[in-house]
Specification:
By secondary structure, the protein is of the alpha+beta class. Among the domains are: about 45-280, 2-methylcitrate dehydratase PrpD (Orthogonal Bundle), CATH 1.10.4100; about 330-465, 60s Ribosomal Protein L30, Chain: A (2-Layer Sandwich). It has helices at about 45-55, 60-80, 85-95, 120-130, 150-160, 180-200, 210-225, 230-240, 255-275, 295, 335-345, 360-365, 385-390, 390-400, 410-415, 420-425, 435-440, 480-495, 500-510; strands spanning about 15-20, 25-30, 305-310, 355-360, 425-430, 450-455, 460-465. The strands form two sheets. Strands 5-4-6-7 form a four-stranded mixed sheet. Strand 6 (about 450-455) and strand 7 (about 460-465) form a beta hairpin. Helix 4 runs antiparallel to helix 5 and helix 8 (about 230-240) packs antiparallel against helix 9 (about 255-275). Residues about 1-15 and about 15-20 have low confidence and may be disordered.
Length: about 550
């Protein structure tokens, strides 16, 4: 934790280099260009992102270790969702798209490693599996993100090129990308997404955060393939232009599209790189144009943002600022689940509760709290996706159960239990200015995603407690390290993936930097028994 590119006022200040305990960072001023203004492409944010992606820097050991952790994390949460309807449907769609002749193809979670799929569709299926439970890593700053969404598309492209050289890529006489190149590519994907999430707020304009994922995945694929800045620039522009969507996917009745949205961005990123390799261009300037994203969809023609990126030759350490989840729920509920588990025994008899008020940040209040104004957040028959974004529901169940489970806690019979519904209706959120300030703090010792809970009882007494960060957070009571990532993986794959297959995957994943190109196909998981198909047909 520790770097943040805050929003700046309108300024003509040139790019400024910042040096600290992190790599030297360049604070790039990003503004809208006038229609008649002549500006070099190197001044565009898309070009600066591409320049970072094309820089052949080494990956530090601690970054490599964290990349391995997140590959393990993604696989575990994907395994636990393999029999969910949205994942089965995406997998069935992928099965209709074989790789082109002469290409290796990519693997899909739940299928045999010998079953190969065209990479964009493999990324689609795996992206849905990874996101379905909302249980992998997160980064919160000016906007939201799940940076682990970069892994499925970048890995799928790496597997596609196991025995083949992409045009304009690594070139003759060089090996296809292997584990070392994959680690570098994933470090790029995380770096670019973290930089965009720090610097540019999308949700204030009701734009979904996958608009930061399309460019980051395209940039990571560019790093993987060793593409020149020009090709990566075009791919980033195309990916942004085609993945800018509204936030209705996370508002009101939340459907399975919440899991599909990042998979869509990853799929589009692969297609964008494919077009760029074929010499096809993107709208430009895609961020700064008079009809571009900033002027027309974000803060308008007079806006200025600051996006911090590593200076030339500096390593990409953005992944170290991100954090995973111990509980399968929206990240802003993680700390509050831990607090509920602590408070439950102290309350004891829940019929004594008159009201529970969660004093928390603006983001938590309006996204997953009562400040959203969504009646669905109090509906015992709401979808799993909606309950995942209801802190009143989540807090009630965590209080009563002293636990949070990725399946049991969302079961319809659990959500409709009368005593739970009664308690749930007594829980509300309010914004607290101090928690909002801490949410946005650039000081890692202050930055917080928790809140203060006031429990009022029918006898007039109160119980008050608070928590700043989740127990699993790097500054929490029980920070996640490799041991915890592996334990989470084991819990999620138990009963789904045979123990021998779990062991095989962990062996491959922990050797990630040393894997040969043909060994990258081992980064998948196959159940003992075939999975159930979605049971429906589509166009494919």
């Amino acid at each position: 934790m520790g770097r943040r590119a805050a929003r700046s006022p309108v300024s003509t200040t040139p790019n400024v280099e910042k040096v600290g305990r992190y790599p030297a960072m360049i604070e790039h001023q990003v503004r809208v260009f006038g229609s008649g203004e002549q500006v070099a492409r190197s001044a565009e944010l898309a070009w600066k992102l591409a320049d970072v992606a094309a820089d052949p820097v080494a990956v530090p050991a601690d970054v490599t270790e964290m990349v391995i952790n997140r590959v393990i994390d993604n696989a575990g949460v994907a395994a636990a969702s393999l029999n969910h309807g949205p994942v089965a449907a995406a997998r069935d769609q992928a099965l209709r798209h074989a790789p082109a002749p002469g290409r290796a193809g990519a693997t899909v979670f739940g299928l045999a490693a010998s079953t190969r799929i065209s990479p964009e569709w493999a990324a689609w299926a795996n992206g849905v599996a990874v996101r379905e439970l909302d249980f992998h890593d997160t980064y919160l700053a000016a906007d939201y993100s799940h940076p682990g969404d970069n892994i499925p598309p970048i890995l799928a492209v790496a597997q596609q090129f196991a025995t083949w050289q992409p045009p304009g890529g690594h070139g003759p006489g060089k090996q296809p990308p292997g584990g070392r190149e994959l680690v570098r590519a994933l470090a790029t994907g995380y770096e670019i997404q973290v930089a965009l999430v720090r610097g540019i707020c999308l949700h204030a304009h009701r734009i979904d955060h996958i608009a930061h994922l399309g460019p980051s995945a395209a940039a990571g694929i560019g790093t993987l393939l060793g593409l020149p800045v020009e090709a990566i620039y075009q791919a980033i522009g195309q990916a942004l232009h085609t993945t800018t969507t509204t936030r209705q996917s996370r508002k009101g009745t939340i459907s399975s599209w919440k899991a599909y949205a990042p998979a869509f961005a990853g799929k589009i990123a692969i297609e964008a790189v494919d077009r760029a390799l074929r010499g096809q261009g993107a709208p430009a300037p895609v961020y700064e144009g008079a009809d571009g994203v900033i002027a027309q969809l974000l803060d308008g023609p007079h806006a200025t943002y600051v996006v911090s990126l590593p200076a030339a030759g500096e390593p990409r350490r953005g992944i170290l600022d991100t954090y995973t989840k111990e509980h399968s729920a929206e990240y802003q509920s993680q700390a509050l689940i831990d607090l509920a588990r602590r408070l439950g025994p102290a309350i004891g008899d829940f019929t004594r509760v008159a009201s529970i008020v969660l004093h928390t940040s603006h983001h938590t209040h309006v996204v997953i709290g009562s400040g959203a104004g969504d009646p669905q957040k109090y509906d015992p028959y709401a979808t799993r996706e909606t309950l995942d974004h209801s802190i009143p529901y989540i807090f009630a169940v965590a209080l009563q159960d002293g636990d949070w489970h990725h399946e049991r806690s969302y079961a319809p019979v659990r959500a409709s239990r009368p005593d739970t519904v009664e308690l749930w209706q007594k829980i509300s959120t309010v914004e607290d200015a101090e928690w909002t300030r801490r949410y946005h703090s650039s000081d890692p010792a202050e930055k917080a995603f928790g809140g203060r809970v006031v429990v009022s009882f029918t006898d007039g007494s109160t119980l008050i407690d608070e928590i700043a960060v989740a127990d699993a957070h790097p500054l929490g009571a029980r920070p996640f390290a490799r041991t915890e990532y592996v334990a989470k993986f084991r819990r999620l794959t138990e009963g789904v993936i045979p123990a021998a297959e779990q062991d095989r995957f962990l062996d491959v994943a922990t050797r990630l930097p040393d894997l040969r190109p043909d060994e990258l196909a081992g980064l998948t998981l196959t159940p003992a028994l075939p999975l159930t198909a979605s049971g429906t047909d589509g166009i494919f």
